[in-house]
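ok trying again, last paste got cut off:
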Amino acid sequence: MQNSRPIGKIVKSNTHIDYVCQVYGPGETSQEPQLGDYAFGEFVAVALQDNQGERAGQLVGVIYNTLLLNPEFGNLGPRLSPRSEQEIFTPDYLVETATLVGIIALGWQELDGRYQQGVPGLAAAVDAPVRRMEEAEVRAFHQDEAGRLRLRYAPVLLGLNNPLVPQLLLGIVDRLTRLFPQQAQQLAVIRNNLAWKSIVQPAG
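nice, full thing came through this time. structure:
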């Protein structure tokens, strides 16, 4: 499924809910990720395993940052061969370049399929696969058992004190407005409050 294609793998964590994912490069997967698959604000799923290596559900997160890793930066020495020839004669060197994305865990999905929002009890392991979530999954993650819209992770994001969070939440609210048109009025109130905070807080 196109919207559920693999994006990359977890390579480290900064906190219990803050992960770094290395995006798959050419040849690392059968279907190379497209730029839109790991764009700012995209929802992703991270596979979880128990101590026996069995599936233990998955984390649900959102991409909030991008970092380009390039060991060639700052190397002012002469180049003995152009990049096109390096791809043939020294392919291992080129593999060192990478795209990393930051992921904040917003909740999790249990083995029975139920979604929960909040700080997950389990943490992802190094090399855990990451994939982009489908639109139907994003919608299900934001519904409670009665089918009502929920956004319980917003305080967690706002508590991160990250300057990108207000824009991240505004993008999430806009997406939810498309997924839950019947809740457009309530979401508009949330959006107006977020937009106001994004203007006032940096100034204060």
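cool. The chain has two domains: 2-141, 150-204. The chain has a mean pLDDT of 87.
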